[in-house]
Amino acid sequence: MKTNQTMVCVKQNTVEEWDDSMPLPGDIIEGIAAVDDCTLVEVKDRLFVPTKGKSELRSQLGQISKKNAQGFVWLKVRRGDRMLNLRVCVVQEKGFRLQRKFSFRAVSNDKHVAVLDDLDVDQCIELQGKFLG
Description:
- By secondary structure, the protein is of the alpha+beta class.
- 20% of the residues lie in helices and 36% in strands.
- Strands 1-7-6-5-4-2-3 form a 7-stranded antiparallel sheet.
């Protein structure tokens, strides 16, 4: 993989307490699955739609939010050398009408909100290193 390739990454989150089920800074968003009625064991790779960039993800989230009133989705994230499936709630940020902005809220902690951005691989790895130490 080219290290200058841009991808959707968790840029920051809002709380200091965390666990592995929450999106963390540096997590690279590999895909999204708009199925809420299944457990982690039932989530299959074929259900995930790959994400190529923040604008594409924003479009996918806009479609999901119209169909899924509760906003729960599954994310496939790359954290270090591991791939994780995380269940999150999609949050549309208020005040952005023309260009909708979304973030993710952890299911296990309403105060844990992950802000997304387009970053290159090196920036994502640097964030992971700072956060996971």
